[in-house]
Give the backbone structure.
Amino acid sequence: MTSKQLTSVLPSPTPHWVGDGFLVRPLFSNFAFGQEVSPFLMLDYAAPHEFRPSEQPPGVGAHPHRGFETVTIVYDGEIEHRDSAGNAGKIGPGDVQWMTAGSGLLHEEFHSREQARRGGKVSMAQLWVNLPAAHKSTPPAYQTILNADIPVVEVADGKGSLRVVAGAFGAARGPARTFSPLHVWDVDLKAGGALELPIAQGDNVLVALFSGAIVTSGRTIAQAGLLTFDAAGDSIALKATSDAKILVLTGKPLNEPIAHYGPFVMNTEAEIRQAIDDFRRGKMGRLEELA
Ligand code: MN
């Protein structure tokens, strides 16, 4: 295998609050919603943050989405979701919620009631995955992927693990159903641990370093951020110099136009106008207030 060369290191941006529940860093920075990151759109990472106990769960209230998928990975704490398609669920550490907004829905994302009452650490990542034009109108769907159902590949010498959330790694296949070929690998590398990642020819590849330090293509990266790589080559070698948390995303670019406005991601501006109109007319459904 030939190693890909590192082309850029985007530093971790200043965090901002999503509602009052998630203090996130948008790691794709200026690459978000661009062709360089297709089929992915953006990645928000909320580093561990301590919340005070509260009777009112923090989070973000009802808002719409259309034309893509939101993938939430919980690292610490418990998050609860509810949407206008009638789906609801709670996910805890290691669990993943893969929501297909498709033709459109409303949803809300909060710390669970129990999590809010006891307070404490919450950490998560939310990845947005684009849908191919042919599937943007697919009915909304919801996959709860529990930690126990995610295959784990052990790193040599007990120096960490790679969880296959989507796609495959060697013989291990991830449980997520996807609309285009992609891989989501959730990696913990202990200091001294090394991993070689096979990358399909032509795939975009993004390595998000959440914490710790790694060496790749001869450079030491000791700050959280996003790494991008050259098109040439078919593998990436990572070595941790301190315990590192990493999310690796690779996928076949969709090569379709991207029109993006707030919570809607379509192919044309006309489709964006239609989405805004449909949302205003209540065509994306409703969420009843909880008693
Ligand atoms: Mn949302």
